[in-house]
Design a protein that fits this description.
The complex is a heterotrimer of chains A (about 280), B (about 250) and C (about 325). With about 280 residues, chain A is an alpha+beta fold. Chain A is built from five helices and 14 strands. The radius of gyration of chain A is 21 Å and the shape is elongated. Chain C has three domains: about 70 residues, OB fold (Dihydrolipoamide Acetyltransferase, E2P) (Beta Barrel), CATH 2.40.50.100; about 90 residues, Nucleic acid-binding proteins (OB fold (Dihydrolipoamide Acetyltransferase, E2P), Beta Barrel), CATH 2.40.50; about 140 residues, no CATH class. The chains are: A alpha+beta (about 280), B alpha+beta (about 250), C alpha+beta (about 325). At the B-C interface, strand 1, strand 3 and helix 4 of B face helix 5 of C. Chain C: Keywords: Cytoplasm, Exosome, Nucleus, Phosphoprotein, RNA-binding, rRNA processing.
Chain lengths: ~280, ~250, ~325
């Protein structure tokens, strides 16, 4: 298994001196995020997000299961990630590296624990049948900042997905196929999106680090915000210490950025809706 | 299922504390004689013991970095920590995350360039869990590293902060942690800068700033306590060594 | 703006009930001659802890245990402040053994490599013992032959204990040892104690011989500066280096001599005495060990049995602290 080779110190110095002048290696401004594009698949709930060269594919599928005994009104939302050497030769097939565990946990915290998806709305028959949503993320290409890309893809997929319309007649539940009745969107409370900042010793933080910036950074901080100015998850684990004011500056920048991103997602969803025949005519 | 009252009418929490009151703090240095450095910290009913080994030869030769020490953190929870005969509901991923957080917190604070090609191993054992495992663990690791004589920039102290209907609270216990939005803050008290911040629940941005500042102030208070304990022990040991040296010198 | 209240904690292990003011002297006001110039009066020393600003770095240079930030010399460890003219350093209370050239150390072989052995010596990294730095059997001046390189395990194999001296350092700080003296080499006939390195100070000689009545032939003690102490069967003066009884061919013998029960008891008693001193943080010295053993015999305690905690305390108090 080839290990990631540390970049030479000259590269680090070059990057830091450029940053001191406010320039990044790929020409972006320090707080500029790469443009991202969302490509929707043929199935509902399948989205590929490309953030620069980083690509993540998110897919949502649903099955009907029996709910937990102590929570008979709630459905399930399970987030799994598949990481394979296709994304980068550093990854091993099947084995979760520490980074991958962090990404999955942060996404779980961002989406599941903040109740982005209303789980009670997933209930079909209390105590007997609920929807079990499975959100699978495939990391296709690693070029820095997997987490932000994954979170965009995940939220877009969840908003894109439609669960089949149901009819409950007595003891029977009839699942209508999309040809018969229009499928129903999920009940989504808010759209939390992750933003990752990298910072170097003594310099201002940068948004959306590229691969090389990620490796050389003294630390990263990820914040998850939604469009209602609420902070959902904040994770700054180690790295060089920041003063409280620096942290708040970053948070404020993040608030604006997330608003923009949510708008972009909504536009993309609109465009897709127009081009897709969802309703039965 | 009865719900605990977070704040009762008298403004007291379920364990009779005021909102800004920290739990009782007990610090003990060198409880483990075999480790290079060790410490045990008890905050309220949460007890965490940390042991530090190193700097020493890395277990895997390939893992040695040529210009600095590598830091390895392992976290374990004893089965009886939660009471009720040991249910390991957390699972390994949560412990891995805590371990990674501790490692990333201390790596820039330890002066690793002084110990090239060596490894510093930190073992954390949670002996009793009643909320605030990560902050207590960080405090224990700081004391253990100081006990081992490993050079650091400053103490790293940590505390948990919660929010209940616009009232911020410090040092949450387990029932409070599961109900309220919680922020764990670790800071370098001398410079007032934040080195670790973790939050997992929805919180408005303005409230967040207040909690962050409160957490940093609480970290300074904790440092005073820890520093007093460290200095007291250091003084005792130095006195003992000096007296014996005098005695031995007299014989010569 | 707000105050943070604290319940004073119940007396813990550390916070005794006596209200002695913790030595919280701001190191800023220890300038000039206030700093004890290397006196051994421990109570006067200034205690600092990590993150504490000591003084301005415009006037003083920083030494071990400190770092410079924003024109200040800041302590990086918890320990005592030491000043030598313009150099400020902090001696940590406890740290891994830091070797210096000329130190005597006891180590254990962990690996046999190409013309060298790797020795574990309780330091930050394993030490290296080169084949060219050992005495080959048959005399000190024997030429090294190629076949010696293939027979390295006959001399020292994995798990063997040896006493050596630090010759030099490698680039990354690892020690290079040598045993090029007849008093160094493989260790036999004894037992190893592992103590905190700070209890062994640099002294004139690290080889002590406790004469009989400590066993029929006495007991040898070797104090390694890395905290390893070797207590073994006493050797007669003749059998030691340079004497007529010295066995040049047998320096790498693997077997132990015949040791009678009284000697064994003596060895164990001396080891217990050393352990008791170490448990109370008392630095070791030859006279102290001899006194301790004498005290043990005077007390007529059951020989060979580990020292009870109370007895250990008594001994330490009477011998070490009363002076």
């Amino acid at each position: 298994m080839p290990r990631e080779i540390e970049p030479p110190s000259v590269q680090k110095e070059f990057l830091e001196s450029a940053l001191a002048e406010g320039k990044r290696l790929d020409g972006r401004l320090p707080l500029e995020q790469r443009k991202f594009t969302l490509t929707f698949g043929a199935e509902l709930g399948s989205v590929e997000c490309r953030l620069g060269k980083t690509a993540v594919l998110a897919q949502v599928t649903a099955t009907i299961v029996k709910p937990r005994d102590d929570r008979p009104y709630e459905g399930f939302l399970q987030i799994t990630s598949e990481i394979s050497p296709m994304a980068s030769s550093v990854f091993e097939a099947g084995r979760a590296s520490e980074d991958e565990v962090m990404i999955t946990r942060l996404l779980e915290k961002s989406i599941r624990r903040t109740e982005a998806v209303d789980r009670e709305a997933l209930c079909i028959v209390a105590g007997e049948k609920v929807w079990h949503l499975r959100l699978t993320l495939h990391f296709l290409s690693v070029a820095g900042n997997l987490l932000d890309c994954a979170s965009l893809a995940a939220m877009a997929a969840l908003r894109h997905f439609r669960k089949p319309e149901l009819e409950v007649l007595g003891d029977e539940t009839i699942v209508h196929s999309p040809d018969e009745r229009a499928p129903v969107p999920l009940a989504i409370h808010h759209t939390p999106l992750c933003l990752t900042f990298a910072y170097f010793e003594g310099l201002q933080p940068i948004l959306d680090p590229s691969h090389i910036e990620e490796i050389l950074a003294a630390g990263t901080m990820t914040i998850t915000l939604n469009a209602q100015r609420e902070l959902c998850v904040l994770s700054k684990a180690g790295g060089s210490p920041l003063s409280v004011d620096d942290v708040m500056d970053v948070v404020r920048v993040g608030v604006e950025r997330v608003r923009e991103n949510v708008k972009t997602i909504e536009e993309a969803l609109e465009n897709d809706k127009k081009s897709r025949v969802v309703e039965v005519l | 299922m009865s719900r605990l009252e977070i704040l009762n009418l008298a403004g007291l929490r379920h364990d009779n504390r005021r909102p800004y009151e920290l739990r009782s703090l007990a610090l003990s240095l060198s409880p483990s004689p075999t480790a290079d450095g060790s410490a045990q910290v008890t905050q309220g009913l949460t007890t965490v013991q940390a042991s530090v080994f190193g700097p020493r030869e890395p277990r895997q030769r390939a893992a040695a970095a040529h210009d600095k020490a590598s830091v390895v953190v392992e976290v374990g929870v004893v089965p009886w920590a939660q009471g009720q005969g040991g249910s390991r509901s957390r699972g390994d991923k949560r412990l891995l995350e805590i371990g990674a957080a501790i490692r990333q917190t201390f790596e820039p604070v330890i002066l690793t360039h002084l110990y090239p090609r060596s490894e510093i191993t930190v073992q954390v054992q949670v002996l009793a869990a009643d909320g605030g495992i990560l902050p207590t663990a960080i405090n224990a690791v700081t004391l253990a590293l100081i006990d081992a004589g490993i050079s650091m920039l400053d103490y790293v102290t940590a505390v948990s902060v919660g929010l209940h209907l616009k009232q911020a609270m410090l040092d949450l216990s387990a029932p409070e942690e599961s109900d309220l939005p919680t922020l764990v803050v670790a800071a370098l008290p001398e410079s007032g800068r934040v080195t670790l911040a973790q939050m997992e629940t929805r919180l408005h941005v303005d409230r967040f700033e207040e909690m962050l500042r409160l957490g940093v102030a609480a970290c300074s208070v904790l440092k005073e306590e820890m520093e007093a304990a460290v200095k007291q022990r250091t003084t005792r040991v130095v006195e003992r060594m000096a007296i014996s040296a005098k005695g031995a010198a007299k014989d010569d | 703006m707000f105050t943070i209240a604290r319940i004073p904690p119940a007396p813990t292990f550390e916070r005794g009930s006596s209200p002695e003011a913790p030595v919280r002297m701001d190191a800023m006001d220890v300038d000039g001659d206030d700093l004890g110039e290397g006196t051994s009066l421990g109570a006067r020393r200034t205690i600092v802890s990590p993150g504490e600003v000591i003084t301005s770095s415009k006037e003083y240079m920083r030494g071990h245990g400190t770092y410079v930030e924003d024109d200040n010399v800041v302590s990086a460890v918890a320990g005592t402040l030491e000043r030598v003219n313009k150099l400020i350093s902090v001696k940590a209370l406890q740290s891994r053994y830091t070797p210096e050239v000329g130190d005597l150390v006891i180590g254990r072989i962990v690996e046999v490599g190409a013309q060298r052995w790797r020795v574990e010596a309780n330091a930050r990294q394993d030490a290296v013992l080169m084949l060219s730095s050992v005495n080959l059997p048959g005399g000190v001046q024997r030429r090294k032959v190629e076949s010696d390189a293939l027979k390295m395990r006959e001399f020292l194999a994995e798990g063997d204990l040896l006493v050596a001296e630090v010759q030099a350092f490698f680039q990354d700080g690892a020690m290079s040892l040598h045993t090029r003296s007849l008093k160094y080499g493989k260790l036999r006939n004894g037992l190893l104690l592992e103590l905190p390195p700070r209890l062994v100070r640099r002294l004139k000689s690290h080889f002590y011989h406790l004469p009989p009545p400590a066993g029929p032939v006495g007991v040898d003690v070797i104090l390694g500066l890395n905290g390893y102490v070797w207590v073994s069967l006493g050797t007669r003066q003749d059998d030691r280096e340079g004497g007529e009884g010295f066995d040049a061919e047998g320096v790498y013998r693997n077997d132990n001599d015949e040791i009678d029960p009284e000697s064994r008891q003596a060895i164990i008693d001396v080891a217990n005495v050393i352990k008791a001193f170490a448990a109370h943080g008392v630095p070791l010295a030859d006279t102290l060990i001899a006194e301790g053993y004498q005290w043990l015999r005077d007390q007529a305690l059951v020989p060979g049995v580990p020292l009870a905690a109370a007895d250990g305390e008594r001994m330490v108090r009477e011998l070490a602290l009363s002076e």
